[in-house]
Design a protein that fits this description.
alpha+beta, 12 helices, disordered N terminus, 2 domains, elongated
């Protein structure tokens, strides 16, 4: 949090003394610190910091926090990074799993940020309308292709496929994202030791792209 923002925060917070001395209120200090670190928090996460819904409403009215959408808050004038946009969508679609280009971004395969958030949802699952300024690309998965390789990024509680599963998915959906993207992800992940050859083979079988990936995996081993 910058010095300038801290000054603005203290100015906006000056009239909330009805709820306690602002300068001594460590609960609000903790809230601002957590929002600065994570970018956004759910209402239930804010409640665990000891801030009531009524107090949260007062903070919103005063401009100390800003509501992104129902149940999701950030700091005012907070510029969302690509990662935080992914987290916003993931938090609103808890049964979905971040995949493909967005998963590559989360795992650091690339610094390029896709203009859409790519998220996998289980076939036949219903999708509720969500409030987001971010464009969303839904990909329908089924069976083990949907359930295997899911991990949680603890910083923002984002469900995402692990690096090896993400690479296998990229080969499976190469016609959507491009074979060059899949190959670059494979090479970059291998170079950075993000997965083992056994893991790649496991997810290649689950995604039914073993024959497609085989020559590229053999090339990695021989190089």
């Amino acid at each position: 949090m910058t010095v300038d923002f801290l000054a603005v925060f203290m100015y906006k917070y000056r009239d909330l003394d009805h709820y306690g001395n602002s300068m001594k209120n460590t609960k609000v200090d903790n809230l601002v610190r957590e929002l600065s670190k994570k970018g956004m928090l759910k209402t239930r996460e804010i409640l665990t910091l000891g801030i009531s819904k009524e107090y949260l409403r007062k903070l919103k009215e005063k401009g100390v926090v800003e509501r992104i959408t129902r149940g999701l808050y950030t700091l005012p004038d907070h510029a969302f990074s690509a990662t935080q946009s992914i987290a916003e969508v993931s938090n609103q679609i808890p049964r979905g799993v971040i995949c493909l280009l967005s998963a590559l971004r989360l795992h650091g395969f690339t610094t390029q940020a896709p203009f859409e958030v790519w998220i996998a949802v289980e076939q036949k699952a219903s999708i509720s309308q969500i409030n987001s300024t971010t464009q969303i690309k839904y990909i329908w998965f089924s069976g083990k292709a949907f359930t295997a390789g899911v991990q949680t990024k603890t910083a923002n509680n984002v469900k995402v496929y692990c690096p090896a599963k993400t690479v296998a998915d990229c080969f499976k959906y190469r016609n959507k994202i491009g074979l060059d993207v899949a190959l670059e992800a494979l090479r970059e992940g291998w170079r950075e030791n993000l997965f083992t050859m056994d893991e790649l083979w496991e997810y290649a079988k689950i995604c039914r792209v073993s024959n497609i990936m085989r020559p590229y995996l053999e090339s990695l081993i021989s190089s």
